[in-house]
Amino acid sequence: MGIDVVDVVSKSFRTLFGNQTVLIYAAIGGIISALLSAVFLSQFSALSLTTGGITAAMIQSVLSLIGAALVALILVILIDVFIRGSVISAANLGKAADMGKAAGQAMNRYLPFLFTLIVVAIAVGIGYVLLIIPGIYLTVKLSLAPVEAVVGRKGVVDSLSASWHATDGNFWSIFLAILLMLVVVLVISGILGIALRIVGLAPAANFVSTFVGYAFTVMIVLIYQQIGVPAKKMGRRAK
Q1: What predicted TM-score, i.e. pTM, was given to this entire model?
Q2: What are the residue ranges spanned by the domains of the chain?
């Protein structure tokens, strides 16, 4: 089955707002991002208001803040993996989704999902560093791997392989869907983010960008569903 690019992008936002479980988990992710932003903005503001030049105490405060920021970043990433896994599970379950089912599947598949995300991020990152084209190619070819890790219950290698084969024949439509979603997310986040920052609500801007970003995760699930289960496609090839 082919992919209707505009339809899959619009349906992603309908699912984000229409699926209660997806909405709640996406909102939780946004709230965490907003709270973290508020805390560190207040800390940096306090440092910037310090007068009297650079002192040993100020340097110590900056180093402590950097250390705390790194620890917080790691914790947020680990929490985001759980939330993103729950969003994937809820989007795949559709109307049958609830908080418990989504969280259960996300926890059950946490480590395979985490390591799949890490491998995909490294591979795609190297592709973009070397040349832009390889990075784009790997972004599309490995785009379904995280969904395979959660929904398809596969390990890291099998998830990557399944995504690679599943995207055959759908490369350009997936690429266009990713590109369109990226533009839509950037426009929404940019417009609302600027407006919120103008009125002094920077944490709310972070909430919006994080929340809207989950539409991308939902879209990958919908694409996964539309092009069929990769395992079946690979099975037909093997026969």
Answers
A1: 0.84
A2: 5-234
